[in-house]
Amino acid sequence: MLWIGTSFKMTKTRGEAAEYAARLRHGVGRSGIPGVQPFVIPSATAIAEVGAVLGIESPVLVGAQNAHWADSGAWTGEISVLQAADAGARLVEIGHSERREHFGETDATVALKVRATLRHGLIPLVCVGEGADVFARGGSVDHVLAQVAAALDGITDTSSVLVAYEPVWAIGEHGREPRPEEIEGVHDALRREWGDRVAAVLYGGSVNPSNAKALLEVPGVGGLFVGRAAWDISGFLAILSTAAEAAAV
């Protein structure tokens, strides 16, 4: 199964998200895409809206971009995993590099959020990745393996966990599109260390319809986590089509 998903980040009003979801529902169909698990992660304000448009039995999973580790309490501005689930989320994105850089997310808080997500039966999507400095000195594998180990430390059953390798140098508006050989080493290490213990290891970072096929051919890549190339529904559907072809091989 190839997991193909996108996060809206801080884009789209509820109306825009609903329109996107309606076109996604039509593009994926009721029965889904054989061999492909699509997912979409709207802003918190649009989780319920997107879930309602897709429908309760949709083959597309809806996620939350973040959730707190506590079930409730005096955490102003946060939402809990329970609240995310109540809004219709079935997975939670955890530890994105933007959260780590701008909001003080650490390996310790990532681990707390993974446990909370699993405790409530949702799927953790754990984001890991190295900065340009680490990549330049050849430390990518050790850095990423350490992040995953910290996030999943002490968890006996990690079979529902998704890991998204997103090198920081490749993501965002100014990210550099990677050559497949530049991500092969990390994906090979993740496959050897975690391949039989997690649901899938995804790649994310400057993914687009033109390079999706090549990225899916990298050994150990079990799907794609797409950024701005999927914010327009036509881009997301194009990548889903590429994944369908790859899954059918």
Automatic annotation (TrEMBL):
The keyword Cytoplasm applies. It comes from Streptomyces himalayensis subsp. aureolus. It comes from the Bacteria. It is an enzyme of class 5 (isomerase). Its EC number is 5.3.1.1. This is Triosephosphate isomerase. InterPro entries: Aldolase_TIM (IPR013785), TIM_sf (IPR035990), Triosephosphate_isomerase (IPR000652). Belongs to the triosephosphate isomerase family. The keyword Isomerase applies. Pathway: Carbohydrate degradation; glycolysis; D-glyceraldehyde 3-phosphate from glycerone phosphate: step 1/1; Carbohydrate biosynthesis; gluconeogenesis. PANTHER family: TRIOSEPHOSPHATE ISOMERASE (PTHR21139:SF42). It catalyses: D-glyceraldehyde 3-phosphate = dihydroxyacetone phosphate. It is found in: Cytoplasm. Keywords: Cytoplasm, Gluconeogenesis, Glycolysis, Isomerase.
